[in-house]
Amino acid sequence: MNWNSETQVKFNALIAKIPVFHRRLTQEAVVKKAEELAVLRKADSVEEVDVIGAFFSDVPSPFYSMMIRLLDQSGYDYRKYGFPKQEK
After folding, report:
1. How confident is the model at residue 56 (pLDDT cuts 50, 70, 90)?
2. Where are the alpha helices (DSSP H) in the chain?
């Protein structure tokens, strides 16, 4: 599936901040889920909302606070999409 170019650049920057030993697994899981979410929206490309939705749907609880910090550091405004749905 195609990715919005700005979304791809922002996602790559965020992935680069993830500890090396988690990076590949995180990238694979988030890409898969983001693309699934884009399909559900009947979109032609993956957008920021899909990336954010993927992170919030699949992150294990022990890594939740790190994910929030990395999203904030990477300039993601997840609150405008209604996240977090529930505080962990």
Report:
1. very high
2. 5-16, 20-40, 48-58, 64-73
